[in-house]
Amino acid sequence: MSSSAFRTVPASADVVIVGGGVMGASIAFHLAEAGVINIVVVERGELGCGSSGKPIGGVRAQFSDPLNIELGSRSLRAYQEFGHRPGADIRLDTVGYLFLLDSARQTSDFEAAVQLQNSLGVPSRMIAPEEARRLCPYLSTDGLVAAAYSPADGHARPGLVVQGYARAAAGAGVTIATHTTVSGLDTAGDRVVGVHTSHGRIACSTVICAAGAWSARIGEMAGVSLPVQPVKRQLAFTAPLTPPAPRIPFTIDFSSTAYFHNSDDGLLLGLADPDQEDGFDTTWTPEWLELFRTVARRRAPALAGLETAGGWAGLYEVTPDHNALIGRSAELPNFLYAAGFSGHGFLQAPAVGEVMRDLYLERAPFTDMSPLSADRFHHGAETRPEAHVV
What we know:
This protein has helices spanning 22-33, 66-80, 104-119, 129-135, 158-171, 215-222, 289-299, 301-304, 345-360, and strands at 12-18, 39-42, 57-59, 97-101, 125-127, 146-150, 154-156, 175-177, 182-188, 191-197, 200-209, 229-238, 250-253, 258-263, 266-271, 308-318, 325-328, 335-339. It is of the alpha/beta class and 390 residues long. The longest helix is centred in the first third of the chain and has 16 residues, at 104-119. The protein starts with 11 loop residues before the first strand and ends in a 30-residue tail after the last helix. The model has no long low-confidence stretch (mean pLDDT 94). Its EC number is 1.-.-.-. InterPro entries: FAD-dep_OxRdtase, FAD/NAD-bd_sf. GO terms for molecular function: oxidoreductase activity. It is an enzyme of class 1 (oxidoreductase).
């Protein structure tokens, strides 16, 4: 669905959602499905042009934090049913996720996480290095202690998810204003009462911030602290492989964060550069590939010399404890937010859409979301470290 840019936005709305990525689209769909009307989604570029623009997104429920397991698991089920609701092919490939572990400490941490995941219905298990190699023939088992594997995980196409949710939302009457930039928010007392955009002002009853890496800026406009930092992440594609690559799990070398999986007629390769500075720069710099190749020489030697055919850079939206910010502002009760997913937004988007719908309708979500309130950082509350971060 290509939504044309509005010359003007509607003069008023019940709900303005800032951000037209996977989170904003999911929230719009779930609100509209529940009968909420007069919703406007404001997106400064095309739909999904921010962090959701990545070509392939992993979907998993293998986490160490129970809330993240629940959000991932519920979203996995929604992605499995996406062809029926809202009704779109998102090229979901349930190949599993394989975490490669090279120390006793990692292994004991993942063993505890697998027990927790199993208690919440996730079919993950610990496996020996030899079984990991059977699942992913590229691996060298040298130095591997164990691996964690869940066959229910996999990957899908974020762009198709955004379009699927947005098309269904638009069909239910949601206005989608692309190429429309938010420049300010009006508040009166403890309410947000208006959103200023490059195509006019929208008087509103509720604002939902789903602006990804840009969420801190939107929060500042309302005087709400949303501690989200943008960090560049890069990936590359191999040239087409002959013979074709075997079908492998989404494979992650946990110590280095190097990962790889199938992509069309080749492989996708990625790694988080530990020296990457915060910022909004999304220039793809092929030099980072040497970091990946260095790891590959040890862990998956056949990948180290593969020819690449371009790549891509996008933004993670990172919070201090690598967990999302989901909730309602204490200072401005009609300002809601879903941001800071630290690389896990796509895989949690369906469940978070449900949660935001319920928060808006003032009913209890499927699980208690209060631990993910942005207030946790300034009330001295215990933050929630998530160990399974890539």
